[in-house]
Design brief:
This protein is an alpha+beta fold and 339 residues long. The chain has 9 helices and 18 strands.
Length: 339
Amino acid sequence: MPQGIATSTGDLMRSTFDLELNNVTKAYGDTVAVDSIDHLFSAGTYACLLGPSGCGKSTTLRMIAGHESVTNGTILLNQSDIAHLAPAKRGTAMMFQNYALFPHLSVLDNVAFSLRMKGEDAAVRHARAGEMLDLVAMTAFADRMPDQLSGGQQQRVALARALITNPQVLLLDEPLSALDPFLRIRMRAELKKLQQELGITFIHVTHGQDEALALADEIVVMNDARIEQAGPARSVFDAPKTAFVAQFIGAHNVLSLPEGLFAVRSDALSITDVASARLEARITSIEYQGTHVSLTAALSGDQSVTVALTDKDFFGDPKNTGEAIGLDWKMQDAHPLRA
């Protein structure tokens, strides 16, 4: 298991500039990958672009980085449009999904590579690279080649290489997807800690709801090339505005009732007697998940719901597949959804 990321920030700059997207569009012929999106990322924020594959989140990230051209719109950093600048001139740095380490260069030379391209003296760039490796607890691996590292170690090297340019904005394209589940949880905690220590803006693309909720100050949910909802992580989870967000963010039921369309959290539903319930359902599956038990139940009209019960509540009054149950909830726990 790797050691924790160091807390010393060295001479890395804290973010002082907002990043603003205005009417940003990316089209490939007749196909629109990103459709006229607007968003302000406040300086020093950890933001997650969350959405399914093909929704436009990675294309948005690459446009900010300069690895994709902008069809229309502006990308403002410190109120200056950077959309047509070369990647190295933007004040941003990108950490790629596959880490993109040079296999023929040592860890130290991988981290120092961008300074080499700028013509920095070897002693200067190696000293600076050494500081970055110390920051991510990889000093002992400086002389190794990338293929001698684990996935988590390669990630740390890629992170150090991105940070060496002192970016105002660090862009991360699904940086945890190649890691095993245990290491992914460990590394997301360390990414959050590092962002807080450095104080720079992180924009992190993911399709994992749990990852976004664990990391983000702000979640930007994308769907079909547009921003569906954006806001503080807790606000987006507690009060989704559309059926898509409620379903994609997870742990919510979308209910079509006579009075309208609502989202109700799975843990806000309670099981009651059928005679006194708002809805009648029939249990179709039961899953024990350690901290809770998840019941799926079918409603009339091809609707289904999920109910999350504590293990004590479930085993205190066990239910069976095929059993009819009543469902109820408090009115304040039902959030109306836009059509």
